[in-house]
Amino acid sequence: MLVAPDEGPLEEVAARLRTSFGVDVEILVVDLRVPEEREMVCRRLQDEDRPIQLLINNAGYGLSLAFERNDIEDEAGHLAVHVEAPMRLTHAALGPMLARGSGRIINIASVAAFTPWGTYGALKAWVVSFSRWANVRYAPHGVTVTAVAPGFVHTKFQERLGLPPGKEGVPGFLWLDAPDVVRRGLRDAARGRAVSIPSARYKLLLGLSRLVPMSLLARFGGTRM
Q: What does the alpha-carbon distance between residue 64 and residue 163 come to, in Å, rounded to a whole number?
């Protein structure tokens, strides 16, 4: 089951999956910022006749780090997608998963969760903290919860921020390829890990960042969006 607000891209991905793997693919055209539409996904997750074994909360986008200049309603929508949606969808999925005694939930976070990076980092910090707690709480009952926290990944995320390719101001060695992130994240989830940082270089950088004053990290982060 694929969920997104734009039907065209959903249909394209669904068609590729059907052709390449011979699987049934269901789509739901939903804007997770809209409560009534979000509830459609929750109801689908609770359908015991069509069980969902793996939930991946991957919806997300970025805003300018200039919080004081951002429209507050844009910030509220940002929070709804990154925090309220995964919270509600996880809650909806947990009931059937716990009843079956098996299931897996992956919440896509970011290394921004571990650094001062505007409201985006704050929201992802919630995702990491929530996933850590939920994994401890529910793994003994057969349902694991993993926060996957990559760094910069080659996707359309930066393009949607209005940053053309090559103009993001990010050194080349910091970029990750999406297939590698997916493979490592799924591996860590299968091992029941609460947090996955799918890159040795980012693990090293996060370790080093603990030695840097918070004020300096905040100034560095403020130059990136």
A: 11
